[in-house]
Design a protein that fits this description.
- By secondary structure, the protein is an alpha+beta fold.
- Helix content is 30%, strand content 16%.
- A 5-stranded antiparallel β-sheet has the order 3-4-5-7-6. Strands 1-2 form a two-stranded antiparallel ribbon.
- Strand 3 and strand 4 form a beta hairpin.
- Helix 4 runs antiparallel to helix 6 and helix 4 packs antiparallel against helix 9.
């Protein structure tokens, strides 16, 4: 019986508002199933359906395909430094990898893990690949593919590699532009693009790495917190002056990276302190053309260093220019 209040008499019998009481509920239901009863306005014909218990249970959080047990990773010797931590060589399931660790006091654990979260969604031949993460216990680890020839900056400065020629310069920066064009399409700002953050593999293979400062550009620009520190020689003037980063800020940094490549790894703005660099750029001056830099490459660099961000080229257009220029100079030597 549903929607009717069943009462009890002092003697424990059951009734529904009428004068007649019943010893059991079954007796009452049998009586109310007979046509002509007056206790209620309807005839009882069939029992109410009891709702079935729900079979829906709380689902466990989706499994992170990148998360691995610490026991699967063998941490080896330190091979370098990132923006906020050390980099070690190591193995993951017998495969050689590079392992990034968080250096104490440089950034929060949450910020460190943001780098891994960003890298999980990046798939491009000129972007370093995320292999795994260890985030269930500390210290947290980010495991990336191992690039045997190390950072581009070190490669450029290593005399054992010999002197690179113009076709090599174009091939290297063309790959970086391709990787950055992909980030541009993903609306992702790197914010620390420099030769030190590009990794090298066999045959001058290049991959953009170190996403510790990377941010998704949901709006037109990204404003950093007051007091944040920047690599002044690589950072666009609007980012230094107003703390506003856009994807076009990375284009400025790319122009500085091209300078590093064509100059054999020279420090940008040689002989100047950081304050002098800022004043030099603010007054409209730019780095002069290196002696071993082709005129078309230098003109491209100057376009990257336009004062107004919206005038600077996109990475897609830079990639197209470099591919065409590579074809014009007949570059086919990649080793």
């Amino acid at each position: 019986v549903k929607h009717f209040h069943i009462s009890n008499t002092p003697g424990g019998m059951y009734y529904l508002g009428g004068d007649r009481a019943f010893h059991t509920l079954n007796d009452m239901i049998d009586h109310l199933s007979i046509p002509g009863t007056s206790e209620i306005s309807i005839l009882l014909q069939r029992p109410c359906r009891r709702p079935l218990p729900s079979t829906v249970t709380a689902l466990p959080p989706p499994e992170d395909k990148f998360e691995v047990d610490r026991d699967e990773i063998v941490l080896g010797a330190k091979i370098g430094n990132g923006s906020f931590g050390d980099v070690h060589i190591g193995t993951l399931k017998d495969v050689k990898v590079a392992i990034k660790t968080l250096r104490s006091g440089t950034m929060s654990k949450t910020q460190f893990l943001e780098e891994a979260q960003i890298m999980k969604n990046l798939i491009h031949p000129n972007i370093v690949t995320l292999e795994a993460v260890c985030t269930l216990i500390e210290p947290f680890l980010i495991v990336i593919e191992y690039m045997p020839d190390g950072a581009l900056l070190d490669y450029l400065r290593d005399e054992n590699h010999g002197q690179l020629e113009v076709p090599h310069h174009v091939y290297i920066v063309s790959q970086v532009a391709a990787g950055m064009a992909y980030l541009e399409e993903m609306r992702l700002m790197h914010r620390d693009l420099a030769a030190r953050n590009v990794l090298m593999g066999p045959s001058l293979q290049c991959k953009v790495a170190d996403f510790g400062l990377a941010r998704i550009c949901d709006n037109e620009y990204y404003v950093v917190k007051e007091g944040a520190k920047f690599p002044v020689r690589w950072t666009a003037p609007e980012a230094i002056t107003h703390q506003k980063f856009t994807i076009k800020s990375d284009v400025w940094s790319f122009g500085i990276l091209v300078y590093e490549v064509v100059s054999g790894g020279a420090i940008p703005y040689p002989g100047m302190e950081n304050k002098e660099v800022m004043e030099f750029v603010a007054s409209g001056h730019r780095i002069s053309q290196p002696s071993r830099c082709d005129q078309p490459l230098y003109e491209m660099m100057l376009q990257c260093w336009e004062e107004l961000p919206h005038i600077r080229p996109t990475f897609v257009s830079l990639q197209d220019f470099l591919r065409n220029y590579e074809a014009q100079i007949g570059s086919s030597y990649y080793a």
